[in-house]
Amino acid sequence: MSETLAPPDALSTALPAAAAEIEAALDTLLPRPEGPEARLFEAMRYASIGGGKRMRGFLVLEGARQFSVSRAAALRVAAAIEILHAYSLVHDDLPAMDDDDLRRGKPTAHRAFDEATAILAGDALQARAFEVLAEEDTHSDPAVRAELVRCLARAAGARGMCGGQMLDMLAEEAEAPLDEPAIGRLQLLKTGRLIEFSAEAGAILGKAPSAQRHALAAYGRDLGAAFQIADDLLDATATAEQTGKRTGKDAEAGKATLVSLLGLERARLQAERLSEQAINHLDSFGERADLLRALAAYTVQRKS
């Protein structure tokens, strides 16, 4: 894998620093528990605050930095995406979906509260994500806010994250395992679309030229594919203590992944190739995009 220009410790410093900023933004933007519906607010905050690398939010911040977007605006968009991502995890963990008991090293929302509260918390988190994007504090130009809302809706909906989850559920019932193109499409929808939008969002905020916006989107698309393969590799090889969630569940459920289809070594090579492709999309951004390059390299090397 090609070297990045960023110092070796730059990403290890930048990621947690950005995560802390995003956590603070989440704390501000999510409602405090009060009134008769306090339990719902508590579940929303439980699912969203504390834990996670905030990679999607980091992509927003670094993409926005390429176009000198204000940090406050970028943090609101980063937080909105993390709020929507939290909703997806709450619903994915439900017994009717992936039936998981552990997330980010703590009980999943339906275990900490109950299934009905978890469903409502997920619904409310999704609504709040779009509310944050639509508020004037996110950007003074209503056209920019509308574009952010439109693109996030597309990434999260039937042709994005929700569609991917449907394909994942159908695959479990299929008579024959999915082939490589079908697995690639499933993962693009379920995981990749939101990561792609996270990379592109900074360009939308910065009203960037279409070529640069497309380059960041392409970077995010390849990064998302590499990230999912790396996740599948961790599920096959890491422990629950290392990842903060139950591992081995794909093999247990008989799910077809690129790891099960290609084997560990070929899947690793595929992830590295996608990471290289992601890095190549950043050629026009110069040294300012070094942290994005470092993130692509880190994605396939991470241990959790």
UniProtKB/TrEMBL annotation:
Record carries keyword Protein transport: no
SUPFAM superfamilies named in the record: Terpenoid synthases (SSF48576)
BP GO terms, sorted: terpenoid biosynthetic process
Domain of life: Bacteria
A Pfam cross-reference name: polyprenyl_synt
Gene Ontology molecular function, alphabetical: metal ion binding; prenyltransferase activity
GO annotation, cellular component aspect: cytoplasm
Gene3D superfamilies: Farnesyl Diphosphate Synthase
Entry keywords, A to Z: Isoprene biosynthesis, Magnesium, Metal-binding, Transferase
Listed PANTHER family: FARNESYL DIPHOSPHATE SYNTHASE
Protein name from the UniProt record: Farnesyl-diphosphate synthase
Taxonomic lineage: Bacteria, Pseudomonadati, Pseudomonadota, Alphaproteobacteria, Acetobacterales
